[in-house]
């Protein structure tokens, strides 16, 4: 490879002096428009790094002389939005859930706000469509342990379920009939067959008949003589074919032996009162909500 700078005879352009297999490299200058654009970008980049956060450091990044940040901008926008909504939010906070339902404008606002709060706080357990899952209630049906009126839902959300940090939490405890030795395995099998038969499912008739008396002596005090439950205790209806932990005989036996009992937090720890009311109204609107209690 030779290094001899000369002018190319064809183009008249000076060469770099590099040749490969007889091919000369031309020293063609960059177009001025491209060069000026490049210089402009360099100047703009230097200005940007001076004005805005740019260079990473061990403790963060250089803040820039303008002190701008995306978090700060979001906070300002949220403050503006909150100020615009303040009157409506104050009205919702001051009114009862039942009264909000009577005001079309407040109701529309509350449902939209409740839908947003549900997506952030509730879908992790109840699902995006609120259909729930094993151990997590379906909020679309009309099966409610403590009631499905707007006010009842509001109370449940506000104080939670079996939430130890709230003295007013919804609470119900089912005995460990098996592991505590209250019932024998045979008795559990019999009463499970009886419980399954209450909703018309297939069960052993002989075992179910024996389980009827066991149910009356051990379960009816909470679930009722007819098995339809008691909302004062949060005791579920055993006749409606809706099961939180499964409705097969084996699943019912497991629940009798050592009950699983879910926990929901008291949302006062995370949401303000207006947001809880909005969430209650949204859940009530999903399809299974019950009519408000009239005084």
TrEMBL record:
<comment type="similarity">
    <text>Belongs to the CcoP / FixP family.</text>
</comment>
<comment type="function">
    <text>C-type cytochrome. Part of the cbb3-type cytochrome c oxidase complex. FixP subunit is required for transferring electrons from donor cytochrome c via its heme groups to FixO subunit. From there, electrons are shuttled to the catalytic binuclear center of FixN subunit where oxygen reduction takes place. The complex also functions as a proton pump.</text>
</comment>
<comment type="subunit">
    <text>Component of the cbb3-type cytochrome c oxidase at least composed of FixN, FixO, FixQ and FixP.</text>
</comment>
<dbReference type="InterPro" id="IPR004678">
    <property type="entry name" value="Cyt_c_oxidase_cbb3_su3"/>
</dbReference>
<keyword id="KW-0997">Cell inner membrane</keyword>
<dbReference type="InterPro" id="IPR032858">
    <property type="entry name" value="CcoP_N"/>
</dbReference>
<comment type="pathway">
    <text>Energy metabolism; oxidative phosphorylation.</text>
</comment>
<dbReference type="Pfam" id="PF14715">
    <property type="entry name" value="FixP_N"/>
</dbReference>
<feature type="binding site" description="covalent">
    <location>
        <position position="219"/>
    </location>
    <ligand>
        <name>heme c 2</name>
    </ligand>
</feature>
<dbReference type="InterPro" id="IPR008168">
    <property type="entry name" value="Cyt_C_IC"/>
</dbReference>
<dbReference type="GO" id="GO:0006119">
    <property type="term" value="P:oxidative phosphorylation"/>
</dbReference>
<keyword id="KW-0560">Oxidoreductase</keyword>
<keyword id="KW-1133">Transmembrane helix</keyword>
<feature type="binding site" description="axial binding residue">
    <location>
        <position position="126"/>
    </location>
    <ligand>
        <name>heme c 1</name>
    </ligand>
</feature>
<feature type="domain" description="Cytochrome c">
    <location>
        <begin position="206"/>
        <end position="287"/>
    </location>
</feature>
<keyword id="KW-0677">Repeat</keyword>
<protein>
    <recommendedName>
        <fullName>Cbb3-type cytochrome c oxidase subunit</fullName>
    </recommendedName>
</protein>
<dbReference type="InterPro" id="IPR036909">
    <property type="entry name" value="Cyt_c-like_dom_sf"/>
</dbReference>
<keyword id="KW-0349">Heme</keyword>
<keyword id="KW-0408">Iron</keyword>
<dbReference type="GO" id="GO:0005886">
    <property type="term" value="C:plasma membrane"/>
</dbReference>
<feature type="domain" description="Cytochrome c">
    <location>
        <begin position="109"/>
        <end position="199"/>
    </location>
</feature>
<keyword id="KW-0472">Membrane</keyword>
<keyword id="KW-0375">Hydrogen ion transport</keyword>
<dbReference type="Pfam" id="PF13442">
    <property type="entry name" value="Cytochrome_CBB3"/>
</dbReference>
<dbReference type="InterPro" id="IPR038414">
    <property type="entry name" value="CcoP_N_sf"/>
</dbReference>
<feature type="binding site" description="covalent">
    <location>
        <position position="125"/>
    </location>
    <ligand>
        <name>heme c 1</name>
    </ligand>
</feature>
<dbReference type="GO" id="GO:0016491">
    <property type="term" value="F:oxidoreductase activity"/>
</dbReference>
<feature type="binding site" description="axial binding residue">
    <location>
        <position position="223"/>
    </location>
    <ligand>
        <name>heme c 2</name>
    </ligand>
</feature>
<keyword id="KW-0406">Ion transport</keyword>
<feature type="binding site" description="covalent">
    <location>
        <position position="122"/>
    </location>
    <ligand>
        <name>heme c 1</name>
    </ligand>
</feature>
<dbReference type="GO" id="GO:0009055">
    <property type="term" value="F:electron transfer activity"/>
</dbReference>
<keyword id="KW-0249">Electron transport</keyword>
<dbReference type="GO" id="GO:0005506">
    <property type="term" value="F:iron ion binding"/>
</dbReference>
<dbReference type="InterPro" id="IPR009056">
    <property type="entry name" value="Cyt_c-like_dom"/>
</dbReference>
<feature type="binding site" description="covalent">
    <location>
        <position position="222"/>
    </location>
    <ligand>
        <name>heme c 2</name>
    </ligand>
</feature>
<keyword id="KW-0813">Transport</keyword>
<dbReference type="InterPro" id="IPR050597">
    <property type="entry name" value="Cytochrome_c_Oxidase_Subunit"/>
</dbReference>
<feature type="binding site" description="axial binding residue">
    <location>
        <position position="264"/>
    </location>
    <ligand>
        <name>heme c 1</name>
    </ligand>
</feature>
<keyword id="KW-0479">Metal-binding</keyword>
<dbReference type="GO" id="GO:1902600">
    <property type="term" value="P:proton transmembrane transport"/>
</dbReference>
<dbReference type="GO" id="GO:0020037">
    <property type="term" value="F:heme binding"/>
</dbReference>
